[in-house]
Amino acid sequence: MTSRLGLSGNTAAAYAVRQLDVDVVPVYPITPSTTIMETLAQYAADGRMDAEIITVESEHSAISAAAAASAAGARTFTSTSSQGLLYMHEVLYVTSGLRLPVVMAVANRAISAPINIWNDQSDVFAERDTGWIQIHAESVQDVYDRMVQAYRIAEDSRVRLPVMVNYDGFVLSHAHGPVTIVADEEVAHFARRVASPFRLDPDSPISLGAIVWPDHYFEVKYQAARALEDSRRVIDEVQNDFRGMTGRKYELLRPYMAEDADFLLLAIGSVCGTIKTAARKMRSEGLKVGLIGLDVYRPFPGKELMRLIGGAKAVGVLDKAFLPGSMAGPAYTDVTSALCRYGVNVPVHDFVAGIGGRDIKVEDVQTMYRVLEKAKDNARFDREIHYVGLRR
Amino acid sequence: MDIGTVVRDSGSTIHAKKSGWRSTQPLIDYKRCTSCGWCWAYCPEPAIRLEGGKYIIDYSFCKGCGICAVECPLHCISMVME
Ligand code: SF4
Ligand code: SF4
What we know:
The complex is a heterodimer.
Chain A: E1 2-8, H1 9-19, E2 24-27, H2 34-45, E3 52-55, H3 59-71, E4 77-80, H4 82-87, H5 89-97, E5 103-108, H6 122-126, E6 133-136, H7 140-155, E7 163-168, E8 176-182, H8 184-190, H9 217-246, E9 254-256, E10 263-267, H10 271-284, E11 289-293, E12 296-298, H11 302-309, E13 314-319, H12 330-341, E14 348-352, H13 362-375, E15 386-387
Parallel strand pairs in A: 2-3, 4-5, 5-7, 6-7, 10-11, 10-13, 13-14, 14-15
Antiparallel strand pairs in A: 1-8, 6-12, 9-11
Chain B: E1 24-28, H1 38-42, E2 48-51, E3 54-57, H2 67-71, E4 77-81
Antiparallel strand pairs in B: 1-4, 2-3
Bound molecules: iron/sulfur cluster (SF4) (2 copies).
Residues 26, 43, 45, 47-48, 57, 62-68 of chain B line the site of one iron/sulfur cluster.
């Protein structure tokens, strides 16, 4: 039995956490993720969720408590944004290094200074190399669905890695949308637990996190990196099973009018909705444009992406984040290294927009498509980043 | 290798002898020692054991940090160059 509710991204995430039989929720509030925690605390207070809510003193402690609880075999959830995610930085590596299947919702927000509470994706891109599986939502429905999928992926014995479910702050975290909910029992069955290969247990003690010397460290880190690479197979399986349960189709990448497109934009998160509107407009004007949403960002689906963009005349990557001094945005660097690795020769352009909550309008997207159209016969790579919507 | 670098056998640090780290070693003056156990409590290794009512230092594990000498309330542990 399914039902339809009007939920915000945060309450949709919290709703899923309640259904997912989570044991431990260490929390520290930060805008715009705070209402997840408020909702979970309410569920616990009302007796609708049997979880230990731990109010810690910082995000560093939140993720440390989450990792520790996960090591003790508990299903663990936390959430954060922006500075909070950055404050977790070192423990994010510990969590993936110890192979602890923590799930975290991140309502993406710009980074200080100057302080700004609005959306861009600088926070998660600063953490893209921490060894976590990183999934992005385009809609409130995605937030809910990806949360339902997350523990199945994280806890799979072939994966055993933490999962971050990202969605744009305010745009998705606070805006309400219709969400088709899966029944509690169905979620419980879908996300049933698998036995953990290890757990801290006083009756049968093990050590976790001991020093590893140069004769093993390389292998341990390789193991985790390999598991992250290979997790795409498990993500595929879980997405397929999810489709079997709900009829909703998820893939590593989300192509839209991409098959015959001459000009393709690659983008992440809620902006894909705006791009679709712009793409339909431009198609009606005769320009064959399309979109590929980079839904699963880590592991980066380079091979799958190359199959989809091979036929395009020009490709644009829209980054809602900066990598100052690197001559490119973060997604652009991943896309261009995939192009080089697979020997795909297509001009590719980098657009940076939507920083610190700056709106990306349909016209801005049309500008991007026009840049691609003009540039198709020029150099393979553009020399400069196109900052769209920037006053200079 | 176990994922997550789990160590399943307890006591594996028994094999990690620390005597090579030392440049000075603690010596207890048993004429003054009252067997209060303070050094035992503070030794981070731990390399101090209670044997027959007496606190003794196991020099295969003592790393020479000198914490015991600083903490002994009777100042009866001296750090001696090896
Ligand atoms: S010197 Fe340090 S390691 Fe050695 S016995 Fe004293 S406290 Fe322990
Ligand atoms: S702290 Fe000093 S007095 Fe106490 S047991 Fe150790 S050596 Fe003896």
